Amino acid sequence: MEFAVGILSKLLLSVGVLSSSWNVNEEARSNCLALKSSLQALRLENTTILDVSYPRVASRMKARGTCFSAATTIPLCRVQFNAITSDTSGIEGEVWLPDEWNARFMAFGNRGLSGCIPYDELDYGSSLKFAVVASNSGHEGDTVLPFFQNPEVLNDFSFRSIHIEAVIGKQIVEAYYGRPQDKSYYLGCSTGGRQGIKTALQYPGDFDGIIAGAPAADFNHLLHWTGMLSRYIGAPKAPSSPSFIPVESWKFIAKEVLRQCDGIDGVVDGIVDEPDACDFRPEALLCGTDVVNGKHCLTVPQVEALRKIYSPLYGVDGELLYPRYDPGAEGSPLISFALSGSFPPYTEEWLKYVVLNVTDYDIDNYALQHHVLMDTINPGGISSFDGDFSAFRDRGGKLLTYHGRADAVIPSGFSKRLYNLISRTLSMPSLDSFYRLFNVPGMDHCEDGIGASRFGQLPASKSLNDSSHNIILALVDWVENGVAPDVIIGTARSGATREHCRYPMKSMWNGSSFRCQG
Ligand SMILES: *[C@@H]1O[C@H](CO)[C@@H](O)[C@H](O)[C@H]1NC(C)=O
Ligand SMILES: *[C@@H]1O[C@H](CO)[C@@H](O)[C@H](O)[C@H]1NC(C)=O
Ligand SMILES: *[C@@H]1O[C@H](CO)[C@@H](O)[C@H](O)[C@H]1NC(C)=O
Ligand SMILES: *[C@@H]1O[C@H](CO)[C@@H](O)[C@H](O)[C@H]1NC(C)=O
Ligand SMILES: [Ca+2]
Predict the structure, then answer these.
(1) Domain assignments of the chain as residue spans, ordered by start
(2) Which Gene3D superfamilies did the record assign (predicted)?
């Protein structure tokens, strides 16, 4: 009976929302407010509807306890929900349903270890007329502490929250508009990139198209690598270590990297297009016997630290754990993420709270062999480094990924490595038919940097909203019209544009412009 009432209200809603009567906003508003009782009647499994509201355009959105806020830009219906995922865990999320709907659904991921609803992304997606969903990934705050002795909360962060977003979001979309979405999409970068990769592997049916930028996948090794970088310069007691490199020194190291490698791509423009072509020699910065006061130079232990930083990280059995730091990323304000001289908090907390399950640990003892325990335990199954995308490929899924080549947090070599792992696992020399990686010269972590770094990948990286300049619309064109993007055109702060090539093509300068060559 309740189900029948739900169906009836669905039909009424669809008529109201889609009608073009003179009074459409008033009508949309009352349909929105009626959604609360129809959702209650639907009794979505394990889900409590916290509130349904029809906010004024430009009102600031924030949920209790969470860290972000953003204003809406278009009229929409806002649904706040809480989903129970186990006896000891649950997810808080929101679905935004624009009055003017493009019949598409989009879910968003998170950043860092953040348990925060990304309101700016909800606003971005809904302003493009998608019905959108995002969540706090199952915890509050940018820390590992909520996972301590709480494996179900970690499971939400590792693999479950995006799946729950998809399951609940789609039901709410259908309840409101009276029909399911035509296609469903996912957008995320960094942790959000890892969540996108994980979802394609574990829940391949959830999304028709996925954008997974600069993925923090191979998560244990990423954190381990970050910890090892900090150890090379003496963390956690860095300033008293002979190999310590103060943050200010990275400015002149960055200059030397450019002096040695900027021109390799044919253009001296402050950008190292192909960091893997840069055989940086830090010895060029050694203080000679003739060192004069004020000259920027480095000691032997400091140069040795640089050698390690610019080399791949190998494990105790000689296996590759993580690619090297990208030469060309030193100029970033994010250099201090791993190289401030402190031990990186994410790595320390990860080791303590979910690998060793202790609250206290002497991080002075942190060393290469710590990866063995991290690999063995792989908390929450978070690694997300697996090449078997066959289920996602076979259901017709499309995945776009991108990586800045001046990424000071996750080296761009990682995304090439993942591409090649998938290629080998599926015995596909090229993944063009369902998976495309765009390398972005001069872009930092997910966005920013002096390159042509804006292509619609994040709310702060808006670009022309056509499928050549906006990666979301490029994905839509691929999924819905079969038109795969050969290049993505990025826009720099200066307004200059540039075509970004898909891997393994390379960007080559022909004397007057960059061309992608394969
Ligand atoms: C609801 O939660 C229970 C227990 O946590 C779980 O077994 C069940 O699969 C959940 N249902 C859905 C639709 O997720
Ligand atoms: C894209 O931009 C044009 C011009 O600014 C605008 O008219 C159109 O509505 C936009 N499309 C979307 C989907 O936002
Ligand atoms: C820490 O707890 C997790 C989850 O209960 C467990 O899998 C892991 O083995 C524990 N770590 C150690 C070192 O015992
Ligand atoms: C370089 O590429 C551009 C763009 O395709 C083309 O117009 C130009 O003629 C090329 N220049 C040379 C020297 O090949
Ligand atoms: Ca250059």
Answers:
(1) 23-181, 221-380, 384-518
(2) alpha/beta hydrolase
Query: What is the Cα–Cα distance from 119 to 141, expressed in whole angstroms?
Result: 15
The count of other CB atoms within 10 Å of the CB of residue 494 is 8
Name which residue sits closest to atom 5 of ligand 1, judged by CA.
86
Q: What is the pLDDT of residues 304-355, one digit of tens each?
A: 999 999 999 999 999 999 999 999 999 999 999 999 999 999 999 999 999 9
CA-CA distance, 316 to 12, in Å (whole number)?
64
Token pair belonging to 316: 């105790």
Contact partners, residue 481, CB within 8 Å, separation at least 6: none
Q: Which residues contact 154 (CB under 8 A, 6 or more apart)?
A: 147, 354, 379, 380, 382
Instruction: Give this prediction's pTM.
Output: 0.94
Query: With contact defined as beta carbons under 8 Å apart, do 478 and 438 qualify?
Result: no
Tell whether ligand 4 has an atom less than 6 A from the beta carbon of residue 20.
no
Query: Which one of the listed residues 445, 448, 467, 507 is annotated catalytic?
Result: 445
Alpha-carbon dihedral of residues 418, 421, 426, 428, nearest 10 degrees? 80
Q: What Cα–Cα distance (Å) separates residue 29 from each residue in 17, 34, 55? A: 9, 9, 9
